[in-house]
Amino acid sequence: MTSHPSRPSRSAGREVKEKSIFDAARSVFAELGFRGATTAEIARRAGVPKANLHYYFPTKEALYRAVTEQILTAWLSAASSFDEQDDPAQALAAYVGAKMDMARADPLGSRIWASEILRGAPVIRDFLETTLAEWLSSREKIIRRWMDRGQIRPVEPRYFFYMIWATTQHYADFETQITALNRGKPLSDEQFAVARAQVIDTVLRGILAPI
Amino acid sequence: MTSHPSRPSRSAGREVKEKSIFDAARSVFAELGFRGATTAEIARRAGVPKANLHYYFPTKEALYRAVTEQILTAWLSAASSFDEQDDPAQALAAYVGAKMDMARADPLGSRIWASEILRGAPVIRDFLETTLAEWLSSREKIIRRWMDRGQIRPVEPRYFFYMIWATTQHYADFETQITALNRGKPLSDEQFAVARAQVIDTVLRGILAPI
DNA sequence: GATGGATTTGACCAAGTGGTCAATTCGTCA
DNA sequence: TGACGAATTGACCACTTGGTCAAATCCATC
């Protein structure tokens, strides 16, 4: 300890402040997209003067890149849950469940991703074309192996993944709509649990080979 | 005919010009969202001076409202395809197919909707809470009737609709990503036909009662 | 308690924003 | 043809934008 406990150390203060700017940026980017977001609004939500924001992140784009980077990391971590099981039903249930949990726990990340795609993915295009494309094609092989073994019905794996991504991310990206359709109240934990179970169940029934 | 054929009449000229501004606005709003879109960019894509744009649409918001209005109309029209069949399999196949066709034929509409939801739906909130909520709850009743008759498995109808909406709209909203994952080429008509058929098939298998 | 780098921030700037307006041009019809 | 309303548009305005900067303040270390 190099400083008084009640006053944060210099480096700890930096981390806290950086994080508060970072979090404010996430929420503004998620709502308004890159172009619509303003550094003034981000600074306001972070509770710092705008000049201070530019001390920690030199440009709006640098801040945006920092935010997207974290999102891509989180995506890959959720994706790994697909690989921990050999059985199709278990692997898919784990993966879909993890994606649903992510949509619930961190909707902002999903929304920023969506907004980035909507504008043509200028920043994450490289990720899509390399890392994500490789992930998808290697998992396609796994799906095809299951098909060959007769464990699942014959499908085009990539369109199957699109359905999983679309359905799970919908609970984050369209939360406003879901809330409006739920008498103005966000889904309760119980409601979400039902939705989560049903999504897993429907996806599995859609692809598993009949007994 | 009140004017020379090669020179459009005054009112026809108005319609053409209004439409070119309207279409330019759709594409800019779809890419950049309401806040990110600029009237200058819309005017540029429409090929008219900015002052001219403001002659036809007094404000950016008026233009945006005109655009969203058309989208809501189109949504309702696709939704009606759900009601034309009594058999669950046929009704659902028609509805999902219509939504897929819409995502293919007019991806911009879907993207503007998505962007509007992302920012909290300030403009279409009323539509969501009234017209859409009513549509959903009346179709929920139809689904429950099918369930009571044992024609489909027991599910929470609204989450089932969310899956349909998410999956079909994904082909419009995430076209950039889908293209990036398809070696940089947009889905061909053949590929899309496969995706369309598979989406319908998977949705049906997920909900239809086993024989 | 003096030093010096890290941090903070009000004031500022050039470029871009949505929108206005008056002067001009156009098309129609008497 | 002339008159008159519809349509066009360059110039302009107040305000917001992302970003800069220099002066002030903080704080770990000696």
| Count of discrete alpha- or pi-helical segments spanning 4 or more residues of chain A | 10
Helix content of chain A: over 70%
String of helices and strands of chain A: HHHHHHHHHH
Mean pLDDT over the full residue set of chain A? 93
CATH topological fold name of the largest domain in chain A: Tetracycline Repressor, domain 2
The overall strand count of chain A is 0
Broad CATH class of the largest domain in chain A: Mainly Alpha
Instruction: List the chains of the largest interface with their residue counts.
Output: A-B, 55 and 55 residues
Oligomer: homodimer
For the sheet with most strands of chain A, the description reads: none
| Termini gap of chain A | 63 Å
Overall SS class of chain A: mainly alpha
Q: Point out poorly predicted stretches of chain A.
A: 1-7
Strand content of chain A: under 5%
Integer-rounded radius of gyration of chain A? 20 Å
CATH architectural grouping of the largest domain in chain A: Orthogonal Bundle
Overall number of domains of chain A? 2
CATH superfamily placement of the largest domain in chain A: Tetracycline Repressor, domain 2
Overall 3D shape of chain A: elongated
